[in-house]
Amino acid sequence: MSKILVFCEFNNGLIKKGALELLSIAKNSGAEVMSAIIGKGAQDMAQQSAHYGAAKSFVLESDDFSNYNSESYTHVMADIIQQSGAEIVLASSSMLAKDLFPRVAVKTNSAVANDCHELEISGGNVTVRRALYAGKCTAQVDFKTSGPKIILMRANQLPVNDADTALSSEVVVITAPQIDLKTLIKEIVKGTSEKLDLTEANIIVSGGRGLKDKDSYYSLLEPLADTLGATLGASRAIVDSGWCTHGMQVGQTGKTVAPTLYIACGISGAIQHIAGLTGSKVIVAINKDPDAPIFKKSTYGIVGDVFDVVPKLTEEFKNIL
Questions:
Q1: Most buried one in 18, 76, 215, 236, CB count within 10 A?
Q2: What's the CA gap between 231 and 204, in Å, rounded?
Q3: What is the spatial distance between Cα 112 and Cα 148, in angstroms, rounded to a whole number?
Q4: Of the spans 21-25, 118-122, 156-160, which averages the highest pLDDT?
Q5: Quick one: which H or E segment has residue 117?
Q6: Cα(114)–Cα(157) distance, integer angstroms
Q7: How do strand 125-132 and strand 111-122 relate by DSSP bridges?
Q8: Tally of CA atoms within 13 A in the half-sphere of 264 that contains its CB
Q9: How confident is the model at residue 63 (pLDDT cuts 50, 70, 90)?
Q10: Please, which pLDDT band fits residue 194 given cuts at 50, 70 and 90?
Q11: How far apart are alpha carbons 248 and 316 in whole angstroms?
Q12: Distances in Å between the alpha carbon of 315 and those of 195, 224, 260?
């Protein structure tokens, strides 16, 4: 039986959906499933991971790990991989994981495949595919090293099993290592939004230069997003203009998303932006230019002024929902 270790990020007392997807596919494969949980509140997450298939949880809970530090997390994850004997390591392709796991791969002589959107596990064999050239084509990834296979998966690509509260997990408590850190994280200043991160969101309402200015972006899109329970996104153009933070940017130099519904408002559809949303199940584009490139990728297109269309959409959704 192969051993699969799932790195579980969590927030506000809940394991993130991307990790639940990975726990589910690992359990469905028939492998021995384990979870790795690091940070303040990690012990409470162990039982949650058990409900989705983790038979054993490696947990490190320490105030020193309240904030992510690449040096300390690398040491801990490398130790957990070695202790667990994991042959396959799964994690969501988050900003944290993209920074962490290449470092872990070096320490554990592992191969790492990043930003994957297809995953199949059969016994000890694993098949993954990832996008290349801004999503124009995909490639199947083969692993050549004898060490663990590390796979970073885009969120919202896999189904989540129903939680089985009868399942429990053996908890292995990891002791925080004594490391002479080169850097120390004093404070992380977070944004005020309590909405899901773009990579986890099921619905995204995104805006572009066609919204004219920052005030219009928020006054038009926030009511629509609030009505739908959506997360706000943005094109690079308006992020560069200072309307939004970089964490809201969708695209090649921003975040790659895969929501069920993506609503693009006043976005022309530059290839760099399209590269970040091709995993979306349904794309609705609103633009007054009928020749805008976004319409070639959209499931539904509305040719019209966003200042007329978006308020009407918001009202219609309010009547329905």
A1: 18
A2: 5
A3: 9
A4: 21-25
A5: strand 111-122
A6: 14
A7: antiparallel
A8: 35
A9: confident
A10: low
A11: 26
A12: 21, 8, 21
